[in-house]
Amino acid sequence: MPEIPVLPAVWRFPAHPASVGRARHAVVGVAPRQLHDELGLIASELVTNAVRHGTRGDDLVELVVWPADGHYWLAVSDPGDGKPSVGRWPAPDAESGRGLVLVDALAAAWGVVPRAYRGKSVVAGLVFPPAGM
């Protein structure tokens, strides 16, 4: 009989800035201790982007976390049609623009995946166990 894989953890949050902290807390609650800081930061940045740029009104942001293939994966989905990309590092006094630069620096891999019915998912993975452990 095949081994049953670990099921992903799934949350849906309102498209509101208060959801960023709730998403970070949710991820830290299911992630291995060694990945709390990195996965928490990635969740914060991706949910912030989804709330600011991918939603409006009563939309929801979906967060999924799961282990697979030696990584811990995190996906944040929203109904927006924009395709996030890493731009240049913002000016030192800029109040935004660092999110995907940080995700790019932390994640072993990340990308944007279109959803079949509407919107996109931004998926990022961290190697587990972390190097040097």
Automatic annotation (TrEMBL):
Transmembrane segments: none annotated. Residues 13-109 form the Histidine kinase/HSP90-like ATPase domain. CDD domains: HATPase_RsbW-like. Keywords: Kinase, Serine/threonine-protein kinase, Transferase. The keyword Kinase applies. It comes from the Bacteria. The keyword Kinase applies. SUPFAM superfamilies: ATPase domain of HSP90 chaperone/DNA topoisomerase II/histidine kinase. GO terms for molecular function: protein serine/threonine kinase activity. PANTHER family: ANTI-SIGMA-F FACTOR RSBW, ANTI-SIGMA-F FACTOR RSBW-RELATED. This is Anti-sigma regulatory factor (Ser/Thr protein kinase). It comes from Actinacidiphila bryophytorum.
